[in-house]
Design a protein that fits this description.
It is a single chain. The protein is built from 3 helices and 18 strands. It has 267 residues and is of the alpha+beta class. The strands form 8 sheets. Strands 13-14-15-16 form a 4-stranded antiparallel beta sheet, with no helix packed on it. A two-stranded antiparallel ribbon has the order 1-2. Strands 3-4 form a two-stranded antiparallel ribbon. Helix 2 packs across helix 3. The chain starts with 22 loop residues before the first strand and ends with a strand.
Length: 267
């Protein structure tokens, strides 16, 4: 659905329903409309009929689907009734407040917590749709959260290992375990911050180890495992070269003709 605010289409419309006068439903080749017994028809207004609310556009036809009314998104079922609570549209779930307006941001619904994309989220998160319920992982204000397939925020301590680093979700927020100090959990913020911290911890891990060829190979294996997915092969290789030169005394020279790195020892 379109998620841009219409400037004038519904400026005079109010979400509070207009008291209904006696009338009857009519249908033509365009759609449904409601005529009053006193004459005229419902037009450009929200009208309550038999306990349900309907919106009639400027031409007097009953609305279905998404409509932006006074800058607020609302949804109408295929039979025209104003939606409330959870609705599914085009494979995504949305939540409508009691007044019919679309909910965004955090939502506590019973015993579960959900997150519904805001307009600002759509500007920075690929694939985000305003109002849509989040599943999977999403980073909000520097904190990564996980939501299961039903949109429930994971508040357990679910744990997994990826590329040699342990992760867990506590109260729905992603944390990772210090690779040198087990049980020291660190709040996940961004990929860049994680990569920087891992580089520092890898330096720390091997700083006091014997500077042997075997340990150099272990360092290279750790760095390639933990960093390649985060910063790519090229930057990982540059990091490895810097540390091997700084801590092991390796020397790297570049052959411009053959475009490869050759390494040997300073000592």
């Amino acid at each position: 659905m379109r998620k841009k605010i219409f400037a004038a289409a519904a400026m005079m419309t109010i979400l509070a329903a207009t008291p209904v006068f006696a009338g009857s439903w009519q249908q033509d080749q365009v759609g449904w409309y409601y005529t009053y017994d006193t004459g005229g028809y419902a037009q450009n207004a929200m009208v309550e009929i038999d306990g349900a609310k309907y919106y009639f556009d400027g031409n007097g036809y009953m609305a279905t689907g998404w409509r932006n009314l006074n800058g607020q998104w609302t949804y109408f079922h295929p039979d025209g009734r104003l939606a409330r609570g959870w609705v599914q549209d085009n494979g995504k779930w949305y939540y409508l407040n009691d007044d019919g307006t679309m909910r965004v941001g955090w939502l506590n619904d019973g015993k579960y917590t959900y997150y519904l994309y805001t307009y600002d989220d759509t500007l920075r998160i690929d694939g985000a749709v305003e109002g849509a319920m989040v599943t999977g992982t999403v980073t909000l204000s520097g904190v990564t959260y996980y939501f299961d397939a039903q949109g429930h925020q994971d508040t357990t301590m679910s744990r997994f290992t990826q590329d040699g680093v342990n992760y867990r979700y506590r109260e729905g927020a992603l944390q990772w375990e210090n690779i040198n100090k087990k049980g020291d959990w660190i709040q996940y913020t961004t990929v860049e911050e994680l990569a920087f911290d891992l580089q520092e911890l890898l330096r720390e891990r091997y700083e006091n180890e014997a500077k042997t060829t075997a340990n150099a190979e272990l360092f290279k294996a750790d760095a390639n495992l933990m960093l390649t997915r985060l910063i790519g092969e090229g930057d990982t290789e540059l990091f490895i070269e810097d540390v091997l030169e700084e801590m092991w005394g390796y020397h790297f020279s570049h052959d411009d003709d053959d475009d490869y790195w050759d390494d040997d020892y300073w000592y």
